[in-house]
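Because discrete structure vocabularies remain unfamiliar, we turn briefly to a single example record, giving the amino acid sequence and backbone structure tokens:
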Amino acid sequence: MTTPLMTTPLTVQAGPDAEQTGAVGAVVASLPVSFAPAGSQPDVVALAGTAGWTADAADAVRGGVRGVVVVDPVAEDPAALAAAAAEAGTAVVLDQAWAGNPVLAESQSAVRNAIADALADAVLLDSVAWGVPGTDPEVLLTRHLAAVLACGVELAGLRIIQRNANGYTVIGSLPGGAPAALQGITTSSVPATATVSVLTSSGRADITLPDASAGWPAEVRSVTSAGAASFPTIYESAHRHSWRRLRAAVDSGAPAADLEQFATLTALVGQLHDSPH
């Protein structure tokens, strides 16, 4: 009879902003084998992804932590942070509102294959993000683009054709030339949700990503010439999934690809800033 390996919890410290945005305390409490509140020197720090987060995270890395979780990061160049994390062997995970949903994880191969198959035959990408009133349209757009990229979508030629205090409309194209349209809307009538729909010549794939604050399941549906399929639901919030990914990255010593992927997102946001509108 073998004795199961015991896991030593990593101690966690979170700033007030990170706690408010990412419900860090509640998430850590839901993973008691993996994490525990820190006393003095934490193993892991949680930071809010407000302006300057890359510098704050790099400071934490240089301070000797084993992991960093950044909640809802705004678009910033992560190159210097990525270099510091690689040198120190520190895991950095970005806890993103919709892009962090477990349904989009690499382990969900059936979902990813369904989306990839639709993209290979796409005639239109249509995506809408709803944010609560008062959400900065730029913040909403960053979350929105992150979600689209997490679905495996490549975007080119993006430009803003409409933007005001209540949202935006962005157009562009997919690699095959099919048009892409992204719309952001702030409203109190719909929960904070993002949808990504890929229309094909013979069907479609639809992904609905819920608010990260609760474990509501994402919905993925595929319609092809062979028929319609819905995929199993996962009752886990994006916040909790991010923390589980961090624990796995620390234990394995294999860095997460979050910062590399975020560099693509930051480049797209930068292109939109430079485009006429």
Observations:
- The longest strand covers residues 122-131.
- The chain has eight helices and 13 strands.
